[in-house]
Amino acid sequence: MSDAELVLRSTRVITPDGTRAASVAVAGGEITAVLPYDADVPSGARVEDFGDDVLLPGLVDTHVHVNDPGRTEWEGFWTATRAAAAGGITTLIDMPLNSLPPTTTVDNLRTKREAAVRKAHIDVGFWGGALPDNVKDLRPLHDAGVFGFKAFLSPSGVDEFPHLDQERLERSMTEIAGFGGLLIVHAEDPHHLATAPQQGGPRYADFLASRPRDAEDRAVEHLIAQAKRLDARVHVLHLSSSDALPLIAAAKAEGVRVTVETCPHYLTLTAEEVPDGASEFKCCPPIREAANQDLLWQALADGTIDCVVTDHSPSTADLKTDDFATAWGGISGLQLSLAAVWTEARRRGHGLQDVVRWMSTRTAQLAGLGRKGAIEAGRDADFAVLAPDETFTVDPAALQHRNRVTAYAGKTLYGVVRSTWLRGERIVADGEFTEPRGRLLTRHP
Ligand SMILES: [Zn+2]
Q1: What spacing in Å lies between the alpha carbon of 28 and ligand 1's midpoint?
Q2: pLDDT value of residue 1
Q3: Coiled coil: which residue ranges (predicted)?
Q4: Bigger pLDDT: 171 or 317?
Q5: Ligand 1 center to residue 4 CA distance, Å?
Q6: 410 lies in which domain range?
Q7: pLDDT confidence of residue 402
């Protein structure tokens, strides 16, 4: 066996070549080899044998709103990264808005990094923000190591992060494409939203009608057309409308550089089951009907949708009123994302290998995180140990995120995370956490 301080064994290790019994050798926080299960252990190496529990690469969640500093009462780095670690996530990339300041200048990025340091239980990176008036800040932010830039095509929900109109979208996209960066976009068209019925109140059907599919479809269509024209790389955030899938599939077939994510709540919850007044289910774009969900799963299976991320976007409980028009929009999913997706994936005949591809390998690729997203030599020794056939019932009191509001309360889910490992160190096991040892990541050139 090659160099190893630690050997992790399981009869089911998820590797890029398939799931098999293996011994994973770790030294200096890095995977040094993936060997047969019964390979000889070098003297002095510690062995952890997980038996039939599955060893999978730590998940990489590229869509998380931590809100720290500024709205830390909504969510902070300490609580968010504990929730993530408890759910098998070892890397997150923080969204540029809902914290104060937003991550839209190099100074603001510094402020964010200072807020995160020493509180991060997992590795944390940052997206920058593209605002109407910060085109001059994009290149410096890129050089300072943000992973790309988020923009909204419709109002974001917070005043300090205005959306881009078509002209400003083009200007930002041109700038970002000029230095080879990535633009990630909340794609809902403001004109279609403005003409949709805005009933307000507690009825979920009214909320759904206020965020129609065609608002997403037209925004995605426009984004694809611009990406093609400017030869830019774009990523569609939190796709909900299945009607946009043919446009995306066609663009990909044509070679347009577009990638797409969806979220656990679109894949596991349906409009039909949302109780009126239950704004813990509110997010934008909204959770849609069961038939829509079936098509999202098909698109994941055929690669039209690339990856699954949480869009964890909490607030304090008092902002989750029973009026869907005014309640805060955002679902808190960090700790439960793996179990929620796995539960539905297994019901639909997918394997854990697929879940790993959607939630770790592809998200790492999206962000250019070459050291994450797979169990193979040369990558960081980041793992989750999962009992995939064991179930648990979601108890909000057991969640680690700051405000224990959840759309999953009372659901029985498959997949218990036994422990999570970051660069060869066990950072949580059975609800016991070590001191934070996460690093702040920057984009590699
Ligand atoms: Zn978001």
Answers
A1: 34
A2: 52
A3: none
A4: 171
A5: 40
A6: 6-55+380-393+404-433
A7: 87
In a domain, 438, yes or no: no
DSSP 315-328: --GGG--S-TTTSP
- Least Cα distance to 138 among 159, 166, 169 occurs for 169
Compute the distance from residue 45 Cα to the ligand 1 centre, in Å.
42
Q: Are residues 423 and 309 in the same domain?
A: no
Instruction: Report the separation in Å between the CA atom of 21 and the middle of ligand 1, taken as the mean of its atom positions.
Output: 37
pLDDT digits (tens, 9 = 90+) for 260-269: 999 999 999 9
The answer to whether 129 and 101 have CB atoms below 8 angstroms apart is no
Residues 345 and 416 in one domain: no
Interval between CA 231 and ligand 1 midpoint (Å)? 25
- Could you tell me the pTM of the whole model? 0.97
> 379: CA distance to ligand 1 center in Å?
28
Residue 423's contacts (CB-CB under 8 Å, 6 or more residues apart) are: 29, 30, 380, 381, 382, 437
Distance 75 CA to ligand 1 centre (A): 13
What is the distance between the alpha carbons of residues 330 and 311, in angstroms, rounded to a whole number? 8
- 175 and 37 belong to one structural domain: no
Confidence at residue 445, expressed as pLDDT on a 0 to 100 scale? 61
Residue 244 above 80 pLDDT?
yes
Tell whether the model's pLDDT for residue 278 goes beyond 80. Answer: yes
Distance 13 CA to ligand 1 centre (A): 31
Rounded to the nearest angstrom, the distance between the alpha carbon of 154 and the centre of ligand 1 is: 13
Query: Cα(126) to centroid of ligand 1, in Å?
Result: 13
Cα 185 to averaged position of ligand 1 atoms, centre (Å)? 10
Which tens digit of pLDDT belongs to each residue from 343-370? Answer: 999 999 999 999 999 999 999 999 999 9
The CA distance from 367 to 132, in Å, is: 24
Q: How many A from CA of 363 to the centre of ligand 1?
A: 15
Structural domain tally of the chain? 2
